[in-house]
Amino acid sequence: MIDYALYFAFACFGSALLMNLWKIVTAHGVGDRVLALDTMVVNSIAILVLMGIFQGTEVFFEATMIIAMLGFVSTVAFARFMLRGNIIE
Amino acid sequence: MSLFLIAALPFLGAVFPALLIRAGRNACSWSAGLTTALALVGVLLHAPAVMRGEVIQARADWLPGLGLNANFFMDGLGMLFAILILGIGLLIIIYARNYLSREDPMGNFYAYLLLFQGAMVGIVLSDNILLLVIFWELTSLSSFLLIGYWRHLPEGRQGARMALAVTGAGGLALIGGVLLLGHIAGSYDLTVILQQKDVVQESPLYLTALILILLGCFTKSAQFPFHFWLPHAMAAPTPVSAYLHSATMVKAGLFLMARLWPVLAGTPEWFYIVATAGLITMVLGAVIALFKDDLKALLAFSTVSHLGLITMLLGFGTTAAATAAVFHIINHATFKAALFMTAGIVDHEAHTRDIKRLGGLRKLMPVTFLLATLAALSMAGIPPLNGFLSKEMMLEEASHTYWLDNHWLIPVMVTIGALFSAAYSFRYVVHTFLGPVRDDYPHRPHDPGAGMWLSPAILVALVVAIGLFPQAIAGPLVHTVADAVTGQQLDHHKLKLWHGVTPALYMSAIAVIGGAILLAMHRPMDRAWIAAPRPEAKAIFDRLVGALTALCRGVTDRLHDGALGRYAAIFLAVMLVLGGYAYATGTTIGATRSGMPVTLLPLIGWICLIGSTICVVWFHRNRLLTLVLIGVVGLVVSLSFNYFSAPDLALTQLSVEVVTIILMLLALNFMPKTTPAESSGGRKLRDAVLSVGGGLGVGGLIYALLRGDSAFPSISAFHLENSYKGGGGDNVVNVILVDFRGFDTFGEIIVLGIAAVVIYAITEAVMQTGVRAKLLNRVPDQPVAGDAHPMMMVVVTRVMMPVALMVAAYIFFRGHNQPGGGFIAGLIAAIAIIMQYMASGYGWATERQRYPYHAIIGSGVLVAAATGMGAWLNDLPFLTSAFGYIYPPGLEKFEWATAALFDLGVFLAVVGAVLLALDSLSRYAWKPHTDTPYPMDINPARDEALAEEGRKA
C-alpha cells in the first residue's frame, strides 16, 4: 500500500518541480523566480525523504537536513541583493 | 673530507657573508675566505691519493628513476680544476676585500661569488652528467648576478643579459646533447660513459650529440662564433672578471671538452669542428685584442684567443696535444688572473683603464709594473716563464698537424696567432707602464697596499717558478691530469725549458720578433683599424634578440589577446580535432553493460537540468536571472548525486552551492546587471558549433565509459578492499581523501589557503589606492529599500548558528565511516558564520571575530602537517594513518584514527579560507561609520528598555 502512496507522492512532487521550473523561466520579475527556486528546494527535500522511505535507507537524511538548514541562505542572499544591492553591509 | 661536503661548502658558506655584512666588511670577507679555504683544504687532503691515480667517489641516489643521482668523483682533472677554482677564488676574495669601494654592497658580492664558486666546483666534481648540467645552469645564473653586480651601470646589465642569453642557450643545447649521450651509453654516470668510446662513436646519434654538447661548450668558453659575449661581460667589477675569465666560468666549456675527450675525441668530426673553431677563435681574438684600448677589453680578447688555443689543442685529438692543453690551462689561469688583477689595480689607482690615457706608470707603480710585466711576458711566450713552455708544446703539436691534407695551414695560422699574442702582450706593458710619466691621469696613481698586490704576486711567483722548474713543480700534476683527460696511462716526457732547436722554436722566434715589429707599427695600423668597417657583435646580437622578441610577442599576442571566448574556442577546437582523430584511428569500447531503465524521477530531473541549462544560454544577458538558473542546475546535480548513491558529493555540492551564490552576489554588486551584446553573428555561429560539438563529445565519451569496461582494470576494488583494513574507515570517499590520497589533500588545502590569502592581499592592495575613496562615495545603481539589518533575519540566523555548528560537528565526526568529513563540515561552519555577516553587518561581525582567518588557515595546514609527520615517529612514511579503539565505560566502543586529526586540519583550512575570501570581498562594499553598534536596526526590546529607563528617570 505504501508503494502506491509513494508513487502518487513522487508524481505530485515531480510535477511540482516541473511547475517550479516553468515559473522560474516565465515569471515576471526576479522576485517570483527566486521564490520559485526556493519552492523547488523545498520540494526536493520532500523527494529526497520519499526516496529514503522508498528504498528503506537513512542515507539521504543528512542531505535533506543540510538543504533544510542552508537552503534558505541562498534565498535570503537573493532577497538582500534585490532590496539592498549589497548582501553584507 | 667527503666530496659532498666539498661541493656543498661554498653553497652553505654563501649564507655567511650575506648575514655577516651586518657585523662589518672584515667579518664578511673573512667568512667567505675561510669557507673557500676549508673547501680547498678538503680537496688538497685528497691530493696524495689522486696523484697516485686513485679516483675519489661519493654516491647517493637522488632520483634514480630518471637516472639522476648525486654522484661525485674526483680524478686528476677534477682535482686540478677544483684547486684552480678554490685557490684562485681565495686570492680573488682577498683582492676584492680591498678592491670594492664603500658604496658596493659587499655581502651580496661574496654571496654571489660563493654561489658561483659552488656551482663551478659542482661541475668539476660531478660524476652524474645530469647533475653536471644542473650545476652548469647554476653557473650561468650566478655569473649573471656577478656580471650585473653594478646594477646601476647599463653596460653591466646589458653585458649580464647577453652572457645569460648566450650561455643559457648553449646550456639548453647541452642538455639535449647530454641526454643523447646518456641514452647512447646507457648510463648517466661519467665513470661509465667514459668507458664506452666505441659504442658512442659508432652510434648514428654521435654527430647530433657531439654538436649539441659542443654548442654548450663553445658558448660557455666563448669560442667563435659565440665569442662576443665575453668582452661585454667585462663591465663587471675586476675581481669578477679575473675570476670568471681566467680560472672558472669560461674554463667550464674547456673542462667539459676535456672531460668527454676519451669518448668524443679522435674522430674527423671532432677534429674539424673543435680544432677549426679553436684556430679561428685563437687568431681572431688575438687580432682584435691588439686594437683594444681598454685594458680589460684587451685582456678579454686575449682570453678568447687563449681559450681558442686550448680548444684547438683538445681538438687535435692526440694525447700529446691533450697534455699540452692541460699544461696551458694551468699556465693561463695563473698569468691571466694576475694580469686582470693588475689591470684592476691600474683602474683602481689611475681611475681609467684606457691605454691611450696611460703610460709611464713604471716609476709611479713599481710593484704593479713588475707583476704585470712578468705576467704579460709569460702570456707573450717569453722564456723562462711558464707561458713559453706550453706555447712551445702547442707550436710543436701544430707544426705536424694536417688540415684537409694541407701541411701549411695550421702552422702558419698558429704562428700568426702567436705573433699577435706577443704584440698585445708587449702593448699591455709598453703602452701602460713604459714611456714618460704623464701629468694628465684622472687620478695620480701610486702602488696600492699589500692587500691588493698580494694575490697577483702569489700568482706571478707561480708563473716564474713553473717556468724555471717545470718538471719539479707542475710535472706530476700535469701528468696525472693528462692521464685523466685521455683515460690512458701515458708515457710522459719530462717538462723541460729547453727542447733543442725545433720547428717550434723557429715559430716562437718569428712570433716574438714579429710581435715587437707589430707593436712598433701600432699607431698607423690602429688608425687603419678604426677606419675599417667591422661587424659590431653587440649591434648584431641586439638586432637578433629584438627580432626574436618581436616574433615571440607577435605569436603570443595573436594567441593570447585577452579574450576569454577566444581561448575557449581555440581550446575546444583543438580538443575536438584531437578527439576526432582519436575516435577515427583508435578502437572504441563496445557496450558491455545495459542501461538503467528511465523512470519518472530521473526524467523530471533531466528535464529540469536541460531546461535550466538552455535557459542560462537564452537569458545569459540578465546576470541575476542567470544566477537563479544556475541555482536550479546545482540543485538538480546534487539531487542526482544522491540518486546515484554519492551522498558525499551531494553534501559537498549543496554547501558549495550556497557559498558560490553568496560569492557571485558579492561580485555582482559592483558589476553591470546585464551583459552587453558584443559578438557578431559569425562569431556566435562559431561558438555555437564549437560548444555544441564539445558538449556532445564529452557527453558521448562519458556515455561510452558508462556503458563499457575501461581498458585497464578499475582501482575501485582496491579502495573498497583496503578502506577499512588500511585506513580504518568505512566511508571510502573520506578514506581516499584523508588516507589513500592524503598527500593530494594536503597539497589542496595549502593551495586553498594560498588562494584565500591572495584574495586578501589583492583586496588590501586595492584598498590602499584611490579606489577606496571611489568605493566609499559609490552610489548604488539600484534603489535601496528596507533596513540593513532586519530583525527577523538577525533572530533566525542567531538561532540557526549553534544548530548549524552542531550539525557541522556531527558531519565531521561521522565522516570517516558515513557520508561527511572535514571538508563538508568546514563549509557548513563557514556558512553558519557568514549568515551572521549577512544579518548584522560586516562591522558587527568582525568585531566579534577573535581569531584572524589567516591564523585559522595556517593552523589547519600545520595540524594536517603535524599529523602526517607523526607517522615518522613510528618510522613510517609521511601521512601513514593509524587507528585503534577505546572502550569508555558505559558507552559503546569508540574508534580513534589519526585521519580524524588530519581531517581537523582540512576543516580548519576550509573554514579559514572560505571566510577570509568572503570577508575580503565584502570589504569592498563596506562603509565604516555608517552602521549602528546594534546587531539589528529595529529592536522593540531596546525601545522598551529605553522607555523604561526614561520612566525611571
Top keywords for this entry?
heterodimer, A: mainly alpha, 3 helices, B: 953 residues, mainly alpha, two-stranded antiparallel ribbon, 72% helix, transport (chain A), cell membrane (chain A)
Summarize the structure.
The complex is a heterodimer of chains A (89) and B (953). Helices cover 85% and strands 0% of the residues of chain A. Chain A is mostly helical.
Describe this structure in words.
Chain B: This is Monovalent cation/H+ antiporter subunit A. The complex is a heterodimer of chains A (89) and B (953). Chain A is mainly alpha-helical and 89 residues long. Chain A has one domain (2-84). Chain A has helices at residues 2-26, 29-55, 61-84. Chain B is an all-alpha fold and 953 residues long. Among the domains of chain B are: 265-520, no CATH class; 730-953, no CATH class. Chain B is built from 42 helices and six strands. In chain B, the strands form three sheets. Chain B has a two-stranded antiparallel ribbon. In chain B, strands 2-3 form a two-stranded antiparallel ribbon. Chain B has a two-stranded antiparallel sheet with strand order 5-6. In chain B, strand 2 and strand 3 form a beta hairpin. In chain B, helix 4 runs antiparallel to helix 12 and helix 4 runs parallel beside helix 17 (319-350). The interface between A and B is large, with 44 and 65 residues.
